[in-house]
């Protein structure tokens, strides 16, 4: 292989061709000496010839299937659509028909908690809570209109106001919902407007014509006007301990003895009166009763407690 004096064209003279290949490669490298190699640049792919720009997208939204796979899937989808079109459409079942009721009856027997039953009569009745609704508290009778009344008008309205008598079911519902007592907001709301055991003495000793404002506030807003002293704090702290000691002693002396938590008990005939005992007791020998626990702050030492117990 040699070179012509008139130019750079290579003249083949039956010499080694690989030398020419090397020279071509060297010439190409010299021409592109400023270009970076593909390994020196970020990863990139060849742009398909049929598109000019491909917008970026999350990997989950990119279809990596080949053209052949896409075509096969499209063909199978068309065949399935054609098959569905040939199927005979069934006429809808009329609500209330024998077939309709039979279906939901079978659904009730096999899947009684199915959501489809909640909106169908009469199957929806099984989803109605069995518990009795709590009666309205005194606070719920307050309206924007009554808040605008003058004191004399409000007094006249209160004179005519009466709480409705309660049913046995409502009395039981109040008691169950208020067993948390001072830790229950329902307990405070149901005590509002009622004379309870804790304020009965103050009610009997106040002037009926002009009752003490503090007493009225304590009755009408028990949650906002609850009080706490060293004596009440001491009693609350040791009530559980005293109750456990009481249960141990009574269990030994009474057959089948039990002591359960108690909520607010309201008189059904006089619904403005109620009481919250510390517990409800029962045994086989004496029946049912109530438990009232007292932890006297002034008698903290053990000797005095033994004396009080007799």
Automatic annotation (TrEMBL):
Domain of life where this protein originates: Eukaryota
Cited InterPro entries: PDDEXK-like_dom_sf (IPR011604), Restrct_endonuc-II-like (IPR011335), YqaJ_viral_recombinase (IPR019080)
BP GO terms, sorted: DNA repair
Sequence ranges assigned to domain YqaJ viral recombinase in this UniProt record: 187-303
Region (Disordered): 72-96
One Pfam family in the UniProt entry: YqaJ
Protein name according to UniProt: YqaJ viral recombinase domain-containing protein
């Amino acid at each position: 292989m040699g070179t012509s004096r008139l130019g750079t064209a290579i003249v083949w003279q039956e010499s080694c061709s690989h030398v020419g290949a090397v020279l071509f490669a060297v010439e190409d490298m010299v021409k592109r000496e400023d270009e970076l190699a593909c390994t020196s640049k970020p990863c990139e792919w060849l742009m398909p010839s049929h598109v000019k720009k491909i917008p970026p997208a999350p990997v989950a939204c990119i279809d990596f299937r080949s053209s052949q796979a896409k075509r096969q899937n499209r063909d199978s989808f068309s065949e399935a659509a054609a098959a569905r079109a040939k199927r005979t459409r069934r006429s809808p079942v009329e609500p209330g028909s024998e077939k309709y009721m039979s279906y939901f009856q079978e659904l009730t027997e096999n899947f009684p908690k199915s959501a489809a039953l909640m909106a169908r009569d009469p199957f929806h009745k099984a989803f109605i809570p069995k518990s009795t609704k709590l009666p309205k508290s005194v606070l719920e009778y307050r309206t924007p209109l009554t808040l605008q009344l003058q004191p004399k008008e409000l007094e006249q309205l209160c004179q005519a106001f009466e709480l409705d008598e309660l049913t046995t079911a409502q009395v039981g519902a109040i008691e169950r919902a208020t067993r948390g007592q001072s830790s229950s907001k329902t307990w405070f709301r149901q005590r509002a407007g009622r004379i309870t055991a804790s304020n009965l003495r103050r009610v009997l000793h106040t002037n009926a014509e002009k009752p003490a404002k503090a007493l009225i506030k304590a009755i009408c807003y028990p949650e906002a006007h609850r009080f706490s002293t060293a004596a009440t704090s001491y009693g609350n702290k040791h009530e559980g301990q005293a109750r456990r000691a009481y249960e141990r002693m009574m269990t030994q002396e009474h057959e089948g003895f039990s002591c359960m938590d108690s909520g607010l008990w309201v008189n059904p005939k006089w619904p403005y009166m109620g009481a919250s005992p510390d517990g409800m007791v029962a045994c086989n020998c004496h029946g049912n009763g109530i438990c009232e626990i007292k932890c006297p702050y002034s008698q903290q030492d053990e000797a005095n407690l033994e004396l009080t117990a007799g």
